[in-house]
Amino acid sequence: MNLLLPEKAKRFLSLPGQLLLVCLVFLLAGLLMNSWLRPSDLSGEINISAERLEELEQLRDVGIDSENLPTIYREVDYSEAESGAWYPKGEAPSLAALVEEGKLPPVDERVGPEPAVLEGVDGIGEYGGTWLRVAVSMQDINVIDWRLPARSLVRWSPHGYPIVAHVAKGWEHSDDYKVWRFHLRKGMKWSDGHPFTADDLVYYFRDHHLYFNKRAPQWLRINGQPGEVVKVDDYTVEYRFPLSNPLFLARAAVENWYAEPKHYMEQFHPELGDEEKIAEYMKAYKLPTPRALYMQLRLALNPERPQITPWIYRVEKANPPFNFVRNPYYWVVDTEGNQLPYIDRVMFEIQPKKQLVNSAAQGRISMQARHLTFDNYSLLMANRDKGDYDVYHWFSATRSIWALFPNMDRRIDADDPAGQERWDLLNDKRFRKALSLAINRQRIIDSEYYGIGEPSQLAPGEDSEFHNETYAKLYTEFDPDTANALLDELGLDKRDKEGFRLFSNGERMT
Question: What does the H/E/C string look like for 262-275?
Fold first, then answer.
């Protein structure tokens, strides 16, 4: 930047002085532009029509009518067979065309005689359409394989209990809750038409998870002791535990990884598989070990891997968009016997987080909550009309997006002299109480969340039947005096010259 100054002035201006003058010029320009661009009157009211205001209030309504909870799963009498209104008979036009060409079996043969029957809160839907989504990486696309598909053995109702049937059509347990027996759906198939049976559940546990991880998965352990998976017959499997496990059904309702397509994955198993085929695929995929190949072939972006999800990957591409099309063997119908899903395909773009938010604001995403956070709220609300979308005010059932969890079970390292002291402090409720009282929650809410929200512990909100006002507000007030008194009471009264508290050995507390 060139500044026109008298020669005399130039001689007296050093380099720092010139830089200071440049900064002052920019500051003055900024002040002038700010005065020009600032609205002349900030005292006026924003006019919103009554209809628009009511619409906004409806979008913000997250209340729960406990007397009229939505239900999706429908129990049916499978003995009705073809006479049942639910019996598989309807399908998407694209699949009907393939049946007519002889490239697919009829829909009732693909779905089986014991489908899961669901009805959306808006009733029977129509076939067609593309669900547009945006991911932030290739790995992020796998959300369609573990979060979106809802393929658990059993599933939660929309607002929690009751837990209802899903992949398993029914279950029972022993009186001592040590044995849980699940009944699978006869005729249910993988996306390649191969039967889905108890062998797939046993294979996952024994030949997949135990083989690669050397221990049972967390959800199949009770008090640290592993359970086992036992095939009773082709459509019956038992989960057996050494101790009573009354909460197992709830664990099963959230667990998506419990079965593998044995007929496909076993071919590439490092110990059980076809050595020649493994070598051929390792060369094609340029992978160094059979294990690496096996894990690669499990991914949702392997079009050869059979799935039980609503949409499956069919054409491998190096670049986005990535398309997932309807699974012709999906095992779910609506109450009129139409095979689900209604939506034809799911399409993923890959974008950086900032670009993703802009895509949402431009209306280029059909439906998505992932990667859209509260700091995007103003942008998304301001562009609703232009982007032709709605913003729903959803939240976690625990009502909080931030929580601090002190590790009360941290490992004590013999080489760390402060390790035992840290363990003792974290396991003393006075210390944890002091930590909580030292957080100025309201200041965080005001500065980061536009004043929306209220101080609370990680707890269900007022509209939940599990809400407890005492627990929700426990130690949430900002009280540094009490926090300091509690820490002094614990013997943490020594500080360094900067005011930081010290451990007993003189080390600064971190």
Answer: HHHHHHHCCCCCCH
